[in-house]
Amino acid sequence: MKKSLKLLFTAVMAFSLLLTAACSESASNEDGPIKIGLLASTTGPLETYGQQTIRGFELGLMYATNGTMEVNGRKIEVIIEDTETKKEVANIKATKLLEEDKVDFLVGATSSGDTLAVLGLAKEYETIMIVEPAVADSITGSEWNKYIFRTGRNSSQDAIAGAVAIAGKGVKIATLAPDYAFGRDGVAAFKEAAEKLGANVVLEEYADPAATDFTANLQKVLDSNPDYLFVIWAGANSPWNQIADMKLQEKGIKISTGAPNIAALATMGNLVGMEGFTVYHHTLPNNEVNDWLVAEHKKKFDGEVPDLFTPGGMSAAIAIVEALKKSEGSTDADKLISIMEGMSFETPKGTMTFRADDHQALQTLYGIKLENVEGYDYPVPVLRKELSAEETAPPIRNK
């Protein structure tokens, strides 16, 4: 009898100690620093985009916390990991952030391929992931889970904006895109949007993402005899110089695309007059958040203006801080999900709203025309029409 009581007492004490430790750890997690793991390509072909996201994210935290870098008395720590634009590396780095660093949020990644490799980990570790700037539709579509939110626009939002710029009844369009999720999802979404407007996509041409010679690809475009070539591209190895060298426009093919980052715009001198769309150029949004971003970016980075993906990084940071303010600093994932579904917040691109159905941020895009503007040494995207969040709302694809 005494032995049984002793064993029972020992078991109760052990359970009590475990419960105390668990409660203590929970309290510590809610009182300690808020850790954010940021996955970005800081080397490799998408390095420029990764650096823009990081700059924007850091400035966004400063803006949203009024310079304190804390929410509800909890300091914010950011741990940056380079994915090298390799899916297997992205998975390893994300696992490290979740297992060793025990981050409360994941943010990233630059590449759609890297991001798709990480989505399942967010679910496994029950950790909210803010996707920025990867655009593949499948991220908030077939591969989505409830822990995924995206401040970056998706391929369908780009596609709707791109189609509105050029598509119409009987218009023949060829597409050129990199052969991976970003390119294929982008073309699929563009084709759907363009055909709804009466256009005919006569060629879908995919190039090696690391290609430097696009001769064979562009010859296929010439052979298909389209009215327009719609280009989807990301990375420093852009096809613009060869498009000019092969004189596609002189041969009657108009070029259209999403106006890229400033370095790529500098290679597009022969495309002045092109009509298309853009995600962002620092001259386009007219709001206080963008004014702050431009001014602070110039101050911090020797007069440089924010580039294509800088406002996206800022938007991701603002979204996290706004959600934490509403949760009073709690990082409980289920609590945050209920707060973030349908949440609106102010960004450099105006108001964004996380759609409750798929957590995709609805946002403004810009119909533009490339023009020579005094004071700029590259063709500038000049606003033709601001495309509202309602106009560019993409189909819900996660059902």
Automatic annotation (TrEMBL):
Span of the signal peptide: 1-21
Protein keywords: Signal
Signal recorded as keyword: yes
Pfam families tied to this protein: Peripla_BP_6 (PF13458)
Leucine-binding protein domain ranges (all copies): 33-370
InterPro entries documented for this protein: BCAA_transport (IPR051010), Leu-bd (IPR028081), Peripla_BP_I (IPR028082)
Family named by the database record: Belongs to the leucine-binding protein family.
Name of the featured protein: ABC transporter permease
